[in-house]
What we know:
The chain is an alpha/beta fold. Helices cover 26% and strands 31% of the residues. It is built from five helices and nine strands, in the order ββαβαβαβαβαβββ. It has helices at 36-50, 64-71, 84-96, 110-115, 136-143, and strands spanning 9-12, 22-25, 54-58, 76-81, 103-107, 122-127, 149-160, 172-180, 183-190. Strand 3 (54-58), helix 2 and strand 4 form a beta-alpha-beta unit. Residues 1-5 have low confidence and may be disordered.
Amino acid sequence: MSSRGQAQSQLRIIGGQWRGRKLSFRPEQGLRPTTDRVRETLFNWLAPDIHGARCLDLFAGSGALGLEALSRGAARCDFVDSSAQVIRQLQQHLATLGAGDRGSCHRRPALEFLQSKPAAPWDVVFVDPPFGLGLIEPSLAALQSPGVLATYALVYLECAAGEDAPALPANWECHRDKRAGGVAYRLFVVTPG
């Protein structure tokens, strides 16, 4: 099927500079944008920390989390996804919003990307992989590499509500934990140690 014949989905930015802006994207298998309700709760949690933060949107998909972070004052966001179509759409969204200088798109598998050391550590990381593929624990382990996370970084994790909580490093403290429908979402503070 040509891309012209594919149905478009819409993402609405819910707060900040681009509040109310709608961006179209072509859905892909496994692409499941974080709902408005969950994003609103998450960004209420992040409100004291998001301004000026350096963010990573791992398994970016629609880019809902990273774009929302930029809209709410994050300094930068790296968007990572293995799909060429997803990366093209994210680059178009950043250009449309005039945020090309604040967002970088990386077409690589998430775990491979995490093995390349960042120029500076991330303050906020969004981990929202496709459900049921066993990607959470390896991703969290890779985030533990030296130089990847800033001191007291915040890591957001979204998974299916029925999945067992992943094994976490000892220095990760659960700051918030909530469920909405079939989704469990948690925010962790990574303490030194």
